[in-house]
Amino acid sequence: MKLFVTGGAGFIGSNFIFYLRKAHPDYQIVCLDSLTYAGNLMTLKDVLKDPSFRFVKIDIADRAAVFALFEEEKPDVVVNFAAESHVDRSIKNPEVFLQTNVLGTSVLMDACRAFGVSRFHQVSTDEVYGDLPLDRPDLFFTEKTPLHTSSPYSASKASADLLVMAYHRTYGLPVTISRCSNNYGPYQFPEKLIPLMIFNAVNGKPLPVYGDGKNVRDWLFVEDHCRAIDLILQKGKVGEVYNVGGHNEKSNLEVVQTIIDAVGKGDIRFVKDRAGHDRRYAIDPKKISDELGWLPETPFAKGIESTIRWYLANEDWMNDIFSGAYRTYYDKIFG
Ligand code: NAD
Ligand code: TYD
Question: More exposed terminus of the chain, fewer Cβ within 10 Å: N or C?
Fold first, then answer.
């Protein structure tokens, strides 16, 4: 079995590669990543020498390069994590989100059609459903919730999802989609809430909380997400969407306070709210748990504790990002 994992030098993609090494040591993995600011090859340093692993620096929107790699490697399965993933950046510059998240996805699927794969899996997000009000804790996103996006990021991901379903219906491409809630865990780029707050708390910098800090996210430990994707690849039905999340709703203030308590210091600063800021995300995971037997295994209290411990023990990983050293690692390894 040969898998293409796109975006594998990013947060979830790298965790997925580590998960696969353990769960399916017989798989051949080819990681496709263009190493944007969010891609960090140092994260993958332990697998780079593995003979069943190959890293290829490639932009998923580069049609000629993608087709050439498909021709050379002939993957059985493609799992697409590659994306521009940060909402704040999408507000400043939407165009690259369309280029990678929409066009890049269509290029990958065209290559899948041309060379044939048994599955194209699109890693999507609960943000395609928009948001829920804070005063209706009875409401959750199901797979039938209409797409209703708020940010250029979520609009680009929803566009990709529509294209994926269109390729299934029009061309019979064997696709699946997972829509997951907010992930946390090791190797997350420190522009996202949890690693940023840990870094700032440790370094005595203010912790910038947007608006009133009452926005709610449904936090899932990254390994639980990886296991869900693996299950969908094994047992998921082609043409189906699966929501992934774990009834771990927390307000941003609760999350930040947990970090302050664990680090032992931290100074909250309320700052201007994000434009179009989604209020609440909450997943109903009934379909994936009824049909595929998936349930989150890591309670938030345990996952956040081990995550904070990981960042504290791996300050070098974070410092290499802030110093920019991680950007030169590819040249060091591949010349
Ligand atoms: P990330 O920003 O940490 O990593 C993205 C990776 O994609 C990076 O390694 C980057 O170099 C690579 N990439 C970007 N543009 C590329 C291109 N044109 N060609 C090749 N590679 C490219 O993102 P993440 O948090 O790991 O998210 C991975 C996927 O999961 C995304 O599709 C995201 O929408 C989705 N998702 C994320 C979360 C979350 O909480 N982080 C939740 C649900 C879904
Ligand atoms: P983020 O990690 O960017 O994920 P997403 O926007 O995809 O949910 O943000 C999580 C929440 O934290 C979101 O409500 C915005 C908020 N936030 C802050 O309050 N301050 C920050 O510095 C960041 C990065 C996020």
Answer: C
